[in-house]
Specification:
Length: about 270
């Protein structure tokens, strides 16, 4: 068996340009990314560089123009069934209560209702929502909705967890609580995590490894850093450690120019 849970191999993704019909736009090019079983890897890069594109490739939701994906050593065709996803946008069904949202994946899998219910309850309490199962999404705070989404993902016990800027809409305090909770849950089960973020502090605080992507077009990895900070970590506390500051300085040196390029591109697009 492969030591890697997820391998993105020489990925290229070309789209028909939204801005310039008829033109093709190479969002991602020549990108290889490997995530070990149990490894927590963050990918950082400027807005619009191709982070979500890569995550969608790993999820099997987007077929790359060239290159391939392997899941535990096997070539991926179609949706990645070993993976669970958590996206930036709200993914809860507003017409379903919290517990029914958590249950939905189990129901698709044909788990009998009583068992699905019990597992969903257990996950709601693991994410700190005991007693909130009958609330509807609109009756919950943004942080609580993220907790439900987290339970919805983890109840399926995926071997690979794909997260696309899951906490970027939250206020700083709520976000740090959620980050710590994710780390705690992860350390108990050690799943492979691909965590997408544009926030370097978050990436360093959470990860075993941080991969920096260049600004587009033809985005590719331009730096890779092993985060040798001890675990368990508290994401707020770890930021004060000298090693964190040093890693941040090193990575920012690589990332800064890309962020500036990315920003200039956004301005050009908007003009
Ligand atoms: N389906 C698509 N059609 C056309 N262009 C796309 C499509 N998906 C993404 N892109 C373009 O690819 C680039 C990377 O997008 P994305 O992966 O969403 O960036 P990020 O997640 O890093 O902000 C952007 O320029 C975006 O406009
Ligand atoms: Mg994105």
């Amino acid at each position: 068996m492969s030591d890697y849970a997820l391998e993105l191999l020489s990925i290229r993704c070309t789209f028909l340009s939204k801005d310039d019909p008829g033109q093709r736009y190479t969002a991602v090019d020549d990108t290889t990314l490997r995530i070990g079983a149990g490894e927590f890897v963050s990918v950082v890069g400027p807005t619009g560089c191709g982070k979500s594109t890569l995550l969608n490739v790993g999820a099997g939701l987007l077929e790359p123009s060239s290159g391939g994906v392997k899941v535990f050593g096997q070539p991926l065709t179609g949706v990645n069934r070993r993976a669970g996803y958590m996206f930036q946008t709200e993914a809860l069904m507003p017409w379903r209560s919290a517990i029914d949202n958590v249950k939905v994946g189990l129901q698709y899998r044909g788990v009998p209702d009583a068992e699905a219910h019990a597992q969903a309850e257990a996950w709601l309490s693991r994410v700190g929502l005991t007693g909130f199962g009958d609330r509807y999404p609109h009756q919950l705070s943004g942080g609580m909705r993220k907790r439900v989404a987290l339970a919805q993902t983890l109840v399926l016990d995926p071997d690979i967890i794909l997260m696309d800027e899951p906490f970027s809409a939250l206020d700083v305090q709520t976000r740090q609580l959620m980050e710590n909770e994710v780390l705690e849950l992860w350390s108990a089960k050690k799943k492979a995590v691909l965590f997408i973020t544009h926030d370097l502090d978050e990436a360093i605080a959470m990860s075993d490894r941080v991969v920096v992507l260049s600004a587009g077009p033809a985005t590719r990895p331009i730096g890779e850093f092993v985060i040798d900070l001890p675990r368990p970590r508290d994401v707020a506390e770890v930021r004060t450690q000298p090693r964190f500051v040093e890693l941040h300085r090193q990575i920012w040196e690589v990332l800064r120019d890309e962020v500036l390029k990315g920003y200039a591109q956004q301005l050009r697009k908007a003009a």
